[in-house]
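To illustrate the input format used throughout this study, we show a single complete record. The first block contains the structure-token representation of the backbone; no residue identities are included at this stage. The design step must infer an amino acid for every position from geometry alone.
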């Protein structure tokens, strides 16, 4: 083998090694408008689901198996004890977490989870509880359940469930239709396939769309006709609340929430059944809200946040969505309420992205695996 060929092969090997090292370390990720690095806050998380932020710089991270962790900025983890037992099965377990707006002044920590019926462990649905967090002892106390989705039914999938405090102080809870009960998403006399709105203590807001109805409609329901909503976020520019939901095979949606509105599932959808059969011929219908965006094929969206901050000035007002099946972070550019462009980020990470958060102008993601991680996007100079 001549010297020129040996030199060429050596350079190719070196370039290949450098590229592999760059992908592993996340040294630099190019994008259309901003370049960034990935900073690993902590790893060894077992299917993490949600993250919340404490004022002192610590993080709270839920794991679907029922564990709640306090994570220091150094990555060190401490388990928060006192978490009620959850029903970990299929897609269920400990899910979202949220701090009420006055949390620093003795407020409540809210979390959603799947739970069985007290006298029948074969049926379950989503519940939301709140508790006081003692940071001195890393314990939860004074836990109380503030919402139970009814009815409890059989099955392991489609629990929702995201939590969002609106500017008026009320709490939005996203739910699923529990997979085997799709038709019930059109029946607001139960909570299947709905988004509910409650006061922080679980009471019914007087201005809920069905608060005073006499037709048996659940008074905590804000909207219905949803399939499985795993993303909700406040658009600070418009004041509207946006939500996305899983379609079946195709037909993932982003919607702008309207009080009392019907979002169509399963009467209206762009998706088909997983086994290839048709669900409906309808893509739109009178009395049902159209999505502002649908993804076919599905990306399986989970987690959603609008970007506001100084770290990435070219991303101001953009919407970020995690993709599970798609294994990437999706960036969406907006013009008012219209999505005018999309960009796929972090494909080389090869990770299911479960949650996306923006805090103090920084973007965080959670990867969903047996060895999941909390990662932060950092500008690359």
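Output of the design step:
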């Amino acid at each position: 083998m001549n010297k020129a060929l040996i030199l060429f092969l050596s350079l190719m090997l070196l370039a290949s090694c450098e590229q592999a090292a760059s992908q592993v370390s996340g040294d630099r990720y190019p994008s259309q408008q901003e370049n960034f690095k990935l900073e690993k806050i902590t790893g060894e998380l077992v299917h993490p689901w949600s993250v919340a932020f404490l004022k002192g710089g610590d993080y709270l991270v839920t794991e679907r198996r029922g564990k709640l962790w306090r994570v220091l900025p150094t990555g060190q983890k401490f388990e928060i004890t006192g978490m009620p037992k959850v029903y970990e099965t299929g897609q269920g377990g400990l899910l979202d977490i949220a701090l009420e707006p006055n949390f620093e002044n003795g407020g409540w920590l809210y979390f959603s989870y799947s739970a069985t019926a007290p006298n029948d462990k074969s049926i379950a649905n989503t519940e939301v509880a709140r508790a006081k967090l003692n940071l001195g002892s890393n314990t939860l106390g004074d836990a109380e359940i503030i919402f139970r989705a009814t009815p409890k039914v059989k099955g392991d999938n489609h629990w929702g469930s995201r939590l969002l405090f609106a500017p008026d102080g009320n709490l939005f809870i996203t739910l699923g239709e529990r997979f085997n009960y799709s038709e019930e998403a059109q029946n607001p006399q139960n909570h299947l396939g709905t988004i509910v709105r409650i006061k922080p203590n679980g009471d019914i807001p007087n201005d809920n769309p069905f608060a005073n109805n006499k037709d048996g409609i659940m008074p905590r329901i804000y909207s219905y006709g949803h399939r499985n909503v795993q993303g909700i976020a406040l658009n600070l520019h418009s004041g509207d609340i946006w939500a996305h939901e899983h379609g079946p095979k195709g037909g993932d949606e982003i919607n702008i929430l309207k009080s009392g509105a019907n979002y169509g599932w399963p009467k209206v959808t762009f998706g088909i059944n997983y086994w290839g059969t048709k669900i409906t011929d309808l893509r739109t219908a009178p009395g049902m809200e159209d999505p502002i965006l649908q993804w076919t094929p599905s990306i399986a969206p989970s987690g959603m946040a609008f970007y506001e901050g100084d770290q990435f000035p070219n991303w101001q007002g953009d919407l970020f969505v995690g993709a599970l099946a798609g294994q990437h972070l999706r960036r969406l550019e907006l013009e008012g309420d219209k999505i005018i462009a999309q960009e796929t980020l972090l494909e080389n990470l090869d990770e299911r992205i479960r949650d996306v958060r923006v805090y103090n102008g920084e973007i965080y993601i959670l990867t969903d695996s047996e060895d999941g991680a909390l990662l932060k996007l950092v500008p690359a100079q």
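Structural context for interpreting the output: The two ends are 42 Å apart (CA to CA). The mean pLDDT is 93.
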